[in-house]
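Structure ticket #2291
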Amino acid sequence: MEHLTPVRCQDSMQGEILLVTLNAKYIHASFGLRYLHANMGELKDRTRILEFDINQKIGDIAEQILKRNPSLVGFGVYIWNVDGVSKLIAILKQLNPQLKLVVGGPEVSFEIETQKWLDKVDYIITGEADIAFSVLCHQLINSPDSTCDIPKQIRSQLPVVKDIQLPYELYSDQDIKHRIVYVEASRGCPFTCEFCLSSLDVPVRAFPLESFLTEIDRLYTRGLRHFKFVDRTFNLNIQTGKAILGFFLQKNVPGMFLHFEMIPDRLPEPLRELIAKFPSGAIQFEIGIQTFNPVVSENISRRQDLVKLEDNLKFLRTQTGVHLHVDLIAGLPGETMDSFGNGFDRLIGLNPQEIQIGILKRLRGTPIVRHDSEFQMIYDSNAPYEVLRTRDFEFIDLQRIKRFARYWDLVGNSGNFVDSVSLFWESTKMPFFSFMAFSDWLYLRTGQRHGIALTRLVAFIFEYLTSQISVDSNVAAKTLWKDYQRAGRSDQPIALRPYLEEIKVNQIQKNELVNNNFGNEKQLRQKRQQKHTDN
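Resolution: structure written out below.
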């Protein structure tokens, strides 16, 4: 294909070098672009970062890029922005064919031959490009125009992390105040889960701990209080985990928030002791359980000790203030609706604050494709490449689970229905299928997955509980009202008002009864006292 042939440099490369990406949301500050910028060497001052988001118009983004008259633009390409970036590149090449365009990132590091839009770019860097991008830019600028034969596809060597310049100074004060700031103490993952690109990224490579903590301390001094670690295995190295937790424990102030991804079945006592010292809500653990089905785990080459996993989650939930965000994936090879539901129910019993349900995605380059034939895996050919059907999951059932996941976010994960949510399965003791019944009913009732206002959702839940599964109206209203007030709300949802008046009257009557009983007891006591006086 065209994009695999050498490219000849013909321009003097005198303009700016722009690093561009389309983030999923404004709040996400691009970690990758800051790494590229930090490692540009003598070209660092000529390099600028331009960040956009996927909701902006492509024409407006192209205008912002072209008005700076750059000589080269590098793009970070991911599963969430590949459609937008491919359209943007087409426009840029039409308007300025001489502009050098370089792409890198996980979405263009594999299966390049199947992505026709890459024909329009000048260079493709596969793998970690922290240093490779800088080398390319220096070659283009320093090599004579007539002899600058560089292959279009550049396979970057895995960089030694101690040679990478850390990017943390490139977070602006605005980033620190208003955006998610990402940090990492290590790269890579020791596990081989076949659905994950990290399974290709071995071994785990740790950044020098002393220099890393120095940079983190500088961010802290600048006012950063929310640190999102992107390490795939924060608790893999116990000594590193202890050092990082100890650092933050000494720095702990109200409002500090630390996000880590953790291995669920590895939590030795030294880490437990440190974690338990943090105040409630200061730490969030993102825990990828994905499946409780041992056969499915074997199918996807996932090693997991379920006994230790459950023990660790129970400890975290009952003896620490950690917020648990736990992931399950629907559509894995060999998973059925029943086994997925059993896994969900098992998680409900462990009581994490959030259960995130995702649909399997066929990420480019992952070995999950080896199951396509046996398990009849059919994936959407468009990003994010979600599985559409498997041998054990019909398309319609995966659609139902997508709706379930959305409604669970609104009800189970939102914190708005902490007590009410258990009413769905109080009589059946089957959380998954009970909530699935509500999910099916709600979709038929509304036809919506988004845009359901909270008061309207309260009304739907009350209607379902009372009309479909025979929960007592007063119990449902009282529980929903208690949840509704949890965040300091005082307005009364219309659906609950008739019952709230009754609850109020009953409470007044109860108080009067208590007062009357107290009064009667007082009168009897006075009478007894009078008798003693008379005698």
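Closing remark: The longest strand covers residues 283-290.
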